[in-house]
Amino acid sequence: MNIKSLLLGSAAALIAVTGARAADAVVVAEPEPAEYVKICDVYGAGYFYITGTETCLRIGGYVRYDIGAGDIGSFDGALATDRQDGDIQDTWKKNARFTFKTWTGQETELGTLKTYTEMRFNFGNTATSNTAFDKGVSVKFAWIQLGGLRVGKDESAFDTFIGYAGAVIQDTLVPYGDFDTNVVQYYFDAGNGFTAVASLEEGSGAVGTIDSYVPHVVGGVKYTQGWGAITGVVAYDSNYEEVAGKVRLDVKPMDNLSLFIMGGYGTDDNLLDDAGNAIDAHGRGFYKQWSGNWAIWGGGTYTINEKTSFNTQLSYDEGKNFGVAANIAYEIVKGFKVTAEVDYLHVGADTVTNWTKADKENSIGGILRFQRSF
């Protein structure tokens, strides 16, 4: 065998071995294309598509810290008048809150399918105790809406449809209705500024929750134009077979000024007799929270500049309760706002007994609120 034949044979053997190894090599699959988050701008800013679905989702909420002082510097739903006997606890009233919100939207053959949820986590003390504690989790909202039909946990249409009583923190110095309830509602929008709502409601609390198969009923109509809006709502309390209603006018006399006035009337007298006893033993029902038959609220918002606004509300009822709330709200940076509010409450002589009188006829307090919204 000569050298040439040896070299050729070695080369052939090497090629054969290399080819066999190549046949056994692992083939790496091509990577799947990445599915990036797709923006959904159908329902406004902040929505994105849930991967693999046609549902748009938005996540948001806020972190808040409140510092309250004085006789009515409360912020957890308790007024100074919630005290039974003795003075309010003599220290700062503090509360930290984290609120988590979700919104979803999807177009269907029956209209837009929407949901909204809001969970609240609170830690702090109360108007009657200086002990700070974890106040637990509350479900503020959890509803489903298809077209105009809404079901689930909401606030009463007696308040949401006609509007809250101003952009102040303590807007219930003279209360204008109860809030938390399960609902079956239908909203109608004529498209020309005219809207309406009909709502069957369960109520809440020892007095407000329905005690039979008959629900509370709320109906409302609204007409909105560039100058503002006029709204009316009426509610039937099935527990006590009482009726309450509110009428509201909103106007914008200037671009940076909005004003409102709202009046309420209820068939439940809710007054005291000459001996100081409640004429109506059950006190307030679910809707007519004010004292006496009638009440009135008014106020507005003046936008000083793009970061600062002044908000105020005055309220009065037949029970001679008079409340004043005023604040300055300043947005330090986008999404972070500080609000300083002062509140005054005069407790009238004719206040119904279940809205326990304060130890002072005239009370004053204030709240400093820090809130980061996202």
Automatic annotation (TrEMBL):
InterPro entries: Porin_alphabac. Its main location: membrane. Consists of 16-stranded beta-barrel sheets, with large surface-exposed loops, that form a transmembrane pore at the center of each barrel. The pore is partially ocluded by a peptide loop that folds into the pore lumen. GO terms for biological process: monoatomic ion transport. It comes from Rhizobium loti (Mesorhizobium loti). Pfam families: Porin_2. This is Porin. GO terms for molecular function: porin activity. It is found in: Cell outer membrane. One of its GO terms (cellular component) is cell outer membrane. Residues 1-22 form the signal peptide. It is a multi-pass membrane protein. Belongs to the alphaproteobacteria porin family. It comes from the Bacteria. Forms passive diffusion pores that allow small molecular weight hydrophilic materials across the outer membrane. Keywords: Cell outer membrane, Ion transport, Membrane, Porin, Signal, Transmembrane, Transmembrane beta strand, Transport.
